[in-house]
Amino acid sequence: MRKLLLLTLLALWIFQFSTAVAQEDEMLYKTHCAACHTIGKGRLVGPDLSGISSKYSEKWLIGFIKSSKSMIESGDPDAVAIANEYFNIVMPDFKGSDADVKSILQYINNSSEKSELIVEEEEKAIKIMAGDADSGKLYFEGELAFESKGASCISCHHVSYPHATQGGLLAKDLSKSYNTMGGEAGIHAILTSSPFPSMQETYKAHPLNPSEIEHLTMYLKASSEQTQINKAVIISDTFLIGMLILVLLFFLISLIWAKRKKNIVNKQIFERQAK
Ligand code: HEC
Ligand code: HEC
To answer: Would the CB of 191 count as within 6 Å of ligand 2?
Structure first.
């Protein structure tokens, strides 16, 4: 029992120590760097420091942060390049120890990872809110999972759409369904409470949410439009071929026609008699 208590206390102490260290890193960064730099939010007085440790070695970073001026003067090519890019605004020397610089870099690295994650999440969220065919495609093909973990449509259906993956052949090809099933309202109805037993079975316990339905509807709409464009192209092709055959026929007929008697018979007889 006492052992357990000791262990818990130890764990608590380590935890507090590590958060205190993390806070110290943050404090150092905030007081000495944040006025001129951001991590993942773009350029300020100085460059965005996101992912800086993958750009330069730690040795270079410590040197630069402690005295960028002397590194520029020594002709270090990277340091000179940055100085030129920032119109020779020279960053003030950081007076702390190497360990302090390492702490700051640690903080920058952690924050960089976080900011990348946030950007990724935001991009995903924007995609979902917009209600577009491309997100619909992701859902249809199972690249994006449905919130309630229902099966992706591609396991049973296929849709022809630019760059669509070949889907299941168990159920109907949905390429034209948006048109044949009464547009938006029709598709909404099918996806909210399907009249088809196998779909009912699949989505009864895993209903689609409204935004997923919206995306899928837009996807089926785009596919319908695409299919129609393809058809229009095919029609105009056959139309052109038809026209060509017609022109050829006219040409042939006129050739045959050219061999006909040029003048009416009566005229020849008339002229012979007139002599
Ligand atoms: C007064 C503004 C200012 C402060 C404070 C400041 N910097 Fe800078 N920093 C700059 C400017 C301007 C540049 C680019 C020009 C130069 O210094 O050559 C720069 C460049 C850098 C670079 C090179 C970035 C790259 O992409 O090449 C690093 C790394 C850097 N700073 C880290 C830090 C750290 C860490 C701190 C805090 C200890 C800090 N800076 C504090 C203004 C500042
Ligand atoms: C378990 C297999 C299965 C899954 C998964 C499935 N469906 Fe179906 N779906 C069917 C069957 C079966 C029909 C009835 C038509 C048929 O005979 O193919 C159908 C019919 C439809 C129709 C009407 C088609 C028409 O033009 O008549 C639409 C629209 C549709 N499904 C959309 C979807 C969408 C969108 C998804 C994904 C959320 C999906 N389905 C998932 C099996 C499935």
So the answer is: yes
What does the pLDDT look like over 209-231, one tens digit per residue?
989 999 999 999 998 888 776 66
Question: Is 214 a domain residue?
Answer: yes
Residue 121 CB burial class (10 angstroms; 0-12, 13-18, ≥19): exposed
Q: What is the CATH number of the domain that holds 216?
A: 1.10.760
CA–CA gap between residue 220 and residue 175 (Å, rounded): 7
- Percent pLDDT > 70 in the chain is 80
CB 133 within 8 A of CB 58: no
The answer for residues whose C-beta is within 8 angstroms of residue 106's C-beta and 6 or more apart is 25
Same domain, 197 and 111: no
* Ligand 1 first shell, C-beta below 6 A: 32-33, 35-37, 45-47, 49, 52, 61, 64-65, 68, 82-83, 86, 89-92, 94, 104
As a whole number of angstroms, the distance between CA 156 and CA 21 comes to: 54
Residue 259 placed within a domain: no
Ligand nearest, relative to CA of residue 190: 2
Atom of ligand 1 at shortest range from CA of 105 = 35
DSSP bridge pairs for 173: 158
Ligand 2 atom with the shortest distance to the CA of 155: 5
List, for residues 4-48, the tens digit of each pLDDT value: 666 666 666 666 656 667 788 899 999 999 999 999 888 888 999
Q: What is the pLDDT of residue 151?
A: 93
CATH number at residue 118: 1.10.760.10
Statement: the pTM of the whole predicted model exceeds 0.70? no
At 126 the pLDDT is 58
229-244 pLDDT tens trace: 666 665 666 677 778 8
Taking the CA of 52 as reference, the closest ligand is 1
Please tell me the number of the ligand nearest to residue 141's CA.
Answer: 2
